Amino acid sequence: MTVGLGLWTRLGVGSRLGLAGMILLVALIIAAGTGVALGTADLSPGEVITIIGGGLGWVPADAASPRDTVVVLQVRLPRVVVAALVGAALGVAGAALQGVFRNPLAEPGVVGVSAGGALGAVIALYFGLTSISRWILPGLAFLGSAAAIAVVLGVAALNTRRLVSSLLLVGIAINALLGAVISMMVATADTDDDLRSIVFWLQGGLEARTWDHVGLIIVPVLFGLVLIMTFARDLNVLGLGDEQARAGGVDVTRTRMIILLLAALITGASVAVSGTISFVGVVVPHAIRLIAGPDHRVLLPASALGGATFLILADLIARTVFAPVVLQVGVITALVGAPVLLWFVVRSTRERL
């Protein structure tokens, strides 16, 4: 293992990124293919390829049964694409926040970004604003995420010497406050449909996701991911401390604000279609950092691919392992992520002793 890590560190950034990207891309393709093939009616890889090829016009459209075609193209494939986009967004948002705050345990849920986005979505549902425009819900989710991160940034900046402790305390306070507001809305929801919709956002799920949901988030998520990755070098310098970053030519305040707003953008867009999904943003970047190192030029794209793969597999487990019962994907990520997070904390504590 030590020899392998030594060889890895001697590789150039381009070689490390290419190797990690190739491995994770293959894993993502396998996970996506498995997610599309498996369900209440299992399909073979050949059948899936034939159906997708028919949808793209590469093979005759009637090469597969109409039922299987609908299942793949209208039910499973959009769900898998949404899972990939949300997982990639949460993975990169977590890696970016960890770099900004120099805390490997920071992630959208810990600092209140997910809670802010969830509250924005719940407000849209509670007051029936979604009937005005389909952009109302993701727009309010983004505004909620941005407001939450603005509060965290403002309070943490008051005491730069204790940024990590300030971050955690403010995050706990924001989560508690927004959780109380959401609980009030749940208790006073007018109809059972409103109540079910709100509970969906709180648990996190990908049920009945369609191509409309893909169209809703693909632009803000991809736009945010690309822009965050352009700040990879700045995140590397920020990891050395604010003074060293300024000496290296980085406008610390401006850079931190832009990265946090971009993290809020992709988190808010994700929350808008999936609800609150925890642990993806902390477990995936931390696991990749242990293997690939802390260089954000590798970490950010690897976190995108790793997050997409992780959430696709979590959703696959949620809808197949306990069939006919279908669990929310947020339950699975918590069941997997919480023990892994505890292991990370214990491992980090032992290394310091």
By CATH, the architecture is named Orthogonal Bundle
In terms of DSSP E residues, the strand content is under 5%
Radius of gyration equals 21 Å
Find the CATH superfamily.
ABC transporter involved in vitamin B12 uptake, BtuC
Q: How would you classify the quaternary structure?
A: single chain
Q: Any idea what the shape is?
A: globular
Q: How far do the termini sit from each other? A: 22 Å
Q: Under CATH, the topology is which?
A: ABC transporter involved in vitamin B12 uptake, BtuC
Mean pLDDT: 83
Low-confidence stretches: 1-5
Give a structural overview:
- The protein has 353 residues and is mainly α.
- The protein is built from 15 helices and no strands.
- It starts with a helix and ends with a helix.
- The model is unreliable at 1-5 (pLDDT under 50).
Jot down its keywords.
ABC transporter involved in vitamin B12 uptake, BtuC, transmembrane helix, globular, Iron complex transport system permease protein, membrane, transmembrane transporter activity, disordered N terminus, 353 residues, mainly alpha
Brief description of this entry?
This protein has one domain: ABC transporter involved in vitamin B12 uptake, BtuC, CATH 1.10.3470.10. Helices cover 77% and strands 0% of the residues. The chain has 15 helices and no strands.
Q: Could you outline the blueprint of secondary structure elements for this entry?
A:
Elements: H1 2-10, H2 13-37, H3 45-56, H4 66-101, H5 113-126, H6 136-157, H7 163-187, H8 192-203, H9 211-229, H10 232-238, H11 242-247, H12 252-274, H13 280-292, H14 296-320, H15 329-352
